[in-house]
Model the fold of this input.
Amino acid sequence: MQQPGAPIASSPQTQRLAGGAPWLDYLRGLAVTGACTVVAFPLYPKVDSVNIIMLYLLGTTFGALRLGRGPSVLISVANILAFDFFFVPPQFSFDVEDTQYFFTMGVMLIVALVIANLVVNIRRQRELADIREGRTAVLYAMSRELAVARDSQTMAAVAVRHVCAVFHSSALVLIADDRGLLSPAGAPPAGATSGPCPVLLANDYDPDLAQAVVARGERLIGDAIYLPLHGSRRVKGVMVVRPQSAAQAPAADQLNLLDAFAVQLAHSLRRARLADAAESARIAAERASLRNTLLASISHDLRTPLSAIAGAGSLIAQPGYALNNDRRTTLGHLIERKARDMSQLLSNILELMQIESSNGAPRTDWHAIEDLVAHSLRANEARLAQRRVAVELPANLPLVLVDASLIVQILNNLLENASKYTPPGTTITISAAVNEEHVLLAVADDGPGLPPGDPQRLFEKFQRGRAESTVVGVGLGLAICRAAARLHGGDIRAMNAPEGGARFEITLPVETQLDALPPAEPEPLRN
Amino acid sequence: MTDAMHVILVVEDDQAIQNILRMLFEANGFRVVMAGTAARGEHDARLHRPDIVLVDLGLPDRDGINVIKGIRQWSPVPIIVLSARSAEPQRLAAFEHGADDYVMKPFSAPELLARVRAIVRRHVRGSLPMGVLELGDVTVDLGRRVVRSRDGREVRLTPLEHRILETLARHGERIVTSAALIKEVWGPDRDDTRALRVYIGSLRKKLEVDPGRPKYILTELGVGYRLVIDPDPAADATVESV
Done:
């Protein structure tokens, strides 16, 4: 694989020639002729002139192999002349005694030219193949990195880096928005340099030229090279490439390679766009289905208590119905209870929306778990009047860095569930355990246990243990528990305890802050 | 209970809630002054000199917090916030600006009445004497810093535990925010709540009958602590019912 940073010398001139100006090659050609002559001269006339011709043909072949087409032709012609001058009688004259030598020299010239041509062609093809291979390697290196990039910003960075490595040029990728306006694909990370090339800043290009590229869809060269990045229908972006030496006009084959880079990048960007579109479509669909479920559940769970409230209210308000005080009280209690159900439902919905929309960390502070449990038990005292509650907290529980209201909310929801789904007389046990990494808080009961099926599905929104249930609530309670636990970097699990009954376990990460604890005050001596 | 009618100022814009509160308090021996706006509320507070003020936070003209601030500039009259806003920062702001209690809507009428009565009673009685506190089975002599259980055994408190207890007691059953408590006990340079949590825990272990379910040193979640001197059994029956 081509390492970025190891530049590919892609200029054909530099590859074809050993170096130096073209006329030097012609001199070298003459030198070949000279060398052949020098080698052949002492051998003549011991060696037959046919073999001398062979020697010259060898020289032609060698010259064609190493030098260009022009020098090869020169070698062919110079060889004939040298042969004529040095070896064809009369020696040291261009005159030819025997006319058959004209035939010999004519064939020799044709053969030499054919050989030169063939060899040069073969060499040129090999060179082209080399260049193609180099380009393929360069493109492959970039496409491999582009393939693993997920977003357009990363892709742009990959392209910029490879342009620098291959062309020693700074580059900037501009992405067109829906209205075709260009903006740089993400700011380069602070302090980052794209290899040895200076970072091309967002305002380092000619916006008019870039917009012209978008409009016309073809490459333009101004203060830099502007390459269109084609989308499926229109130009979706522009890659700006600025060679480090501005005066140096890019060679045609370099432009071709740049075009190939741009095509690669455009392909990848299209892939990123499609992935984005698919993702947002999925999210939209999920949201729509969630909204429908929510609407259905809410309208059911709000209408039911509302109709009870309206009914009870109208009964009380009718002067004609001789309701005795007991009945009025019953209706009043009914109204209150139903209103509270609705209020609970609303706060659950609000709570969940708040947790799910909050991107940042929860509002945390240090709290004692005992305190949170006590608070929750106090808030649920009335609800738990018919149950027995056992609190089994070890003495060595550390303080936890949590959003107290969320943890209390988790406990409240679990206790509420326990009171809803277990018969009176059930024992509810709140216990905790701690290891180096986690605090495990468990709410268990010895009631009928969880409904059959995967317990974890209970944490999905709008899940209720039993499909047909008269228990009020949209099934948001456990979803809130999970969202809140996860917001703290913890989790919650549901299971049936081996000894029967349902058990919910919350894990919360423990901050290893023991060193930072306040120094313990010496306990006063006991009498 | 005093015989003279207590005056309660209710700053609340919703007509239905106004009616309910009027019925509730008039039926229970209060004279009710009703104000529908923040401006009206501040004006009526000066005019009627109520014994207790009930403030809704969402008022049409200004935020109810302004009413609390305005009244606190000249009067220590107890103020109870009655609001649908349940977020911690809002509750904390209300307490920091001088509210004495916070009742969440939807409220339960008996609970609201109990809280109003408790606060009025305390306020009339004045702040706690720096003398002797009776916390159930435990007697705390704040002046001499001696704590004894009913059987006469001495309960040893550390100096910091004493200072926390004193600070809570000095605020007489009113909520002390965590920040204020830390400042008074440790000085202004600390803002670490961990030490406070630890000491509250150890205080409860020494003073409470069931430290897991404290009755005297109560946590107001996300806000602070309050010392309850004689827990009202009636209030216990109507715990927070949300």
